[in-house]
Amino acid sequence: MNKKWNGRKIFHKCVLVLLIIAMGDFLFSGRSSVGEGEGEHFSWKEVFAARAQEGVLNVWLPSFAFADKGSASGRGWFEQILGQQVPLFAYAGSQDNENLQTESGSTYEKILLLEGASEYTESEDGDALEVPETSEGKIRLDDNMTQLLQEENQTGQDQDGEQQEVQMPAPDQFGFIKAAGRSQEYNWSYYQDFDALIKEFYAVDATTEANPKRLNLDALLGKTMAITKNPDVPQILIYHTHSQEDFVDSVPGDISTTIMGAGELLAQILREEYGYNVIHHMGMYDVESRDYAYSNSLPAIEQVLAENPTIEVVIDLHRDEVLEGRKLVMDLNGKQTAQFMFFNGLSYTKAHGDIDYLQNPYIDENLAFSFQMQVIANEYYPGLTRRIYLKGYRYNMHLRPRSLLIELGAQTNTVEEIKNACAPIAHILDLELSGKGLY
């Protein structure tokens, strides 16, 4: 009986020692040893507790006293040694790590699937994506522009005092009449307010959130996105993650009537009208399924960029999908023209925070590039663009600082409406890359 009682007492003492060690480790983990560390001061209670912990270790569990605490911090070194003393504890910990790794892998696959499945905005209220009609923060220049044009044409009157017709610019070789100047300008002091900035320029997907540290005028307008044009080397790449996207009157089997046909026309205009050297990559990565389209296309696009290191601008051209019956179109110079939208991935979701395995070192540059393009579009061609859409994933926009994802029209647009939009997109891009678009 006495032996059994003594055994219990020893057992209870061991348990008490382990509890003392655990509590001491918890309280003092991460601190330097007593007397170590420049500028560190400890109270007599802390010194006493540390010495007591050391004494208990030396008397009861010498192996703990000589453990290499530098190999782990916090709770880790205690668990490591306890695992040596109690193998079952070590096994349980390893199982937890395996489960965590499996869960992380599963999350990674889910995120890639969500990213690849779609960047469509059809679930959004259509009106929420349109640029507000409010005049706050904008200065209409229509009357001023007319006056300036009249002054250039001898105040718009002939010698007899009769009103002369103001001469409009001639169409370019693609039949497009470029805007002679801005129709409106922004009063940027109004958009120093974060809420006003978001309301005017952005639609934020429910999966993510806008960050004022990134989305502010200093960050968005303060970066120079112009390039030095060199027609001797490729500088612009156009490709299509979702090559199978078509339109209401697309001809089956005829890629010229799909988003790829729009990409070819955009490339042609940039080459022939503006003198850029453009590569149009015709790879197809969503023929069987849209799932993982972004991860499927990434190696090929990386190869194109590796083979052409002079490329500075990367455009992934898509079309959106909206509710049937809704049409994204406006009248531009007498032509029915599809509206379009710039799209940015933030590599951040509310559910997962920053997505480390979808890192993008160029998020700020991507945001500045699309924002400046949006400003130019709104000033030269009001109503042509929808608000910039922000979503939580990466969408391969990490490949270059000047990466654009454009949603050109939707499945309800005609091929003609889509092609009519290519010329103004090219003009807006040239204004941005030449540095002539912003003031």
Textual characterization of the structure:
This protein is α/β, with parallel strands linked by helices and 439 residues long. The protein has two domains: 2-34 and 41-85, no CATH class; 125-153 and 170-434, Zn-dependent exopeptidases (Aminopeptidase). It has helices at 2-28, 44-60, 62-65, 76-85, 87-117, 142-152, 194-201, 217-221, 259-272, 293-307, 363-380, 415-434; strands at residues 138-140, 184-186, 202-204, 236-239, 278-280, 313-320, 329-332, 335-338, 340-345, 348-349, 353-354, 388-391, 402-410.
List the helices and strands and how they pair.
Blueprint: H1 2-28, H2 44-60, H3 62-65, H4 76-85, H5 87-117, E1 138-140, H6 142-152, E2 184-186, H7 194-201, E3 202-204, H8 217-221, E4 236-239, H9 259-272, E5 278-280, H10 293-307, E6 313-320, E7 329-332, E8 335-338, E9 340-345, E10 348-349, E11 353-354, H11 363-380, E12 388-391, E13 402-410, H12 415-434
Parallel strand pairs: 3-12, 4-5, 4-6, 6-13, 9-12
Antiparallel strand pairs: 1-2, 7-8, 9-13, 10-11
Helix pairs in contact: 1-2, 4-5, 9-12, 11-12
